[in-house]
Amino acid sequence: MSRVCELTGKGRQVGNNVSHANNKTKRTFLPNLQNVTLISEALEKSIKLRVSTHGLRSVEHVGGLDNWLTKTSEDKLSPRAAKLKRELAKKAKAAA
Question: Measuring CA to CA, which residue among 81, 93, 95 is closest to residue 71?
Fold first, then answer.
């Protein structure tokens, strides 16, 4: 399972460990990913996603999963989240 947030696309970063003697060795910084169940009010179902804590805070700040998906461009989303966004758009189009 890859270490990438399904909503924000945040992945691992590469940097250096720097010792007291200023020796540098490569290391990776992994995002803090959590398995979360988010509720979509428009689709009337719950969705399990692997989301970073930063992404989870962003979703809560915007006002929920539905608002987050409509405001975020599709190229920044994972394929699964992009599919959810298309389902939301289809549901909204049918309701209008």
Answer: 81
**Gap between the Cα atoms of 66 and 75, Å rounded:** 17
Question: 30 with 38: CB under 8 angstroms?
Answer: no
Question: For residue 32, what is the enclosing H or E element?
Answer: none
CB proximity list for 47: less than 8 A, separation 6 or greater? 37, 38, 39, 40, 65, 84
Check: pTM over 0.85? Answer yes or no.
no
How far is Cα 72 from Cα 17, in angstroms, rounded to an integer? Answer: 34
SS3 91: helix
At which residue do the structure tokens 């020796």 appear?
23
Could you read off the pLDDT tens digit of each residue along the chain, which spans 96 residues?
Answer: 689 999 988 999 999 999 999 999 999 999 999 999 999 999 999 999 999 999 999 999 999 999 999 999 888 888 889 999 999 999 988 887
